[in-house]
Amino acid sequence: xxxxxxxxxxxxxxxxxxxxxxKKLSVDSLYKTRDMQDIINxxxxxxxxxxxxxxxxxxxxxxxxxxxxxYGLEFGIIVxxxxxxxxxxxxxxxxxxxNVFVSTNGLASAEFKHNTFSNHNIWNLQxxxxxxxxxxxxxxxxxxxxHQSDDNFVFNGLPVDxxxxxxxxxxxxxxxxxxxxxxxxxxxxAGMGIIVDGYQNIDKPKKGAVRRHxxxxxxxxxxxYPSIGYWANGVxxxxxxxxxxxxxxxxxxxxxxxxxxxNAEGLGSEHSATQLKTEFRKYWSxxxxxxxxxLAFWLWGNYLLKGSIPYLELPGxxxxxxxxxxxxYTIGRFKGTSFYFNExxxxxxxxxxxxxxxxxFVNIQTxxxxxKIHLFERWNSGxxxxxxxxxxxxTRSNICMDYGAGNYGARGxxxxxxxxx
Length: 421
Known about the structure:
membrane, signal, Surface antigen, globular
C-alpha cells in the first residue's frame, strides 16, 4: 500500500512537471510578483514598491500560536530577514531567523540562526544559538517498528493529544555553534568551527518524587552518562559547495556540506566521539518562463564513527539544523546512533502573481541502534502536499503549510516560515 501511494504521488509530480514545461508564460519579474506586503498595502491603500531598487523591507515578522497538551497554549514570534553585504552580482544574499516562544505550561525557547556572506562570497559564517526549557517525545532508538500511539494526529512535530505510550522528556538546554568558511575557488569553501550542546535537569522529579525509568535512563546507564544531564562539546571541520541562487527559496543550484565533528572530554564532553555529517541539496528549475517550477532533492546523514554520544544528541527525525525533516512524523519519532534521511519535493506556482504556490513531497529515513537494528536495514516513508504563501518577495520568504501521511497511521499538519530545505 505504501509503495503504491508513493508511486502515485511521484506520477502526479512528474505529470505536473511536464505541464509546467508546456506552459508559455511571461518571464518572471518582481514587478508582477505579489506578496503579503503588497496585499496589506493595497488594503490600506498604501504605496507598494514594484521594483528591486526602490526602498523596501527585507524583514518578515510572523506571530505564531499553537497548542499541545505537553506544551500548553503557545505564543511566539518568528522574524526572518536578510541583507546583501556586497555586489549582488557575485555575493549571496545573507539571511537570519529568530524564533521566540513561551507556553502556559512554563516552557520557553529562544533561538537565533544566521547564514552570512561577505563581499564576493570570500567568507561565509553560519551560526545558531538556542536556549530554553522544553519537552521531547521519546519513542526509543531505531526505525522500522510501530508504536501504539502512532495513529495520533501531529501538529508541527507534536501529537495533539497526550498518550501514555509516549514518554515525554523535559529538560533545559543550551545549544550553540559557529562555523567559519573561507572561499577556496568558485563555490568551494573550507573551514572549521565550534559546537556546544548541553542538556540539564532531564526529567528532574518534583521534591519527594522518584525518578522514573525512561529510554534516556536506559541508554545513559548503558553508555555511562549521568541521566540527569550531560554535555557534548567539540570542534568542527567543514567542506562546503554552494551554488544556490538564493538561500531561502532556491530555484537552481547545489548545496553540499561535509562536517567532521570531534567531541572531546577536554572541552567538557562526557565522552569523546567522532561523527561524520553529510548534506546534499540539488535544485532544478524546470521552466525558463516560470522558474518557480522546481524539483528539489535533499539528502542528510549523520554517522557515528567512533565513541559515543548522549541520548538527546542522537540524530533522527527533525534533528537537522532547521529541525524540519521527516514530515509527517513527530520530532525524534525515529532516531539512532547513525541516521539517514532523503526527500524529493516538487514546487510549483498556483496563481499568476506568484502569491500562492504548492508543493508535493516524498521522503524516507532509516536509523540504527546499539542492538539488532542496523542502518539501511529498516525504512520509514512519508509523503504529502502543501501550500506556500509568499510573505516577502525580496527575501523569498514564505509561509509554509504542509499535510503529510506516513507509516503506522502517522499524519500531521506542519506550519512554518520559509521552505523546509
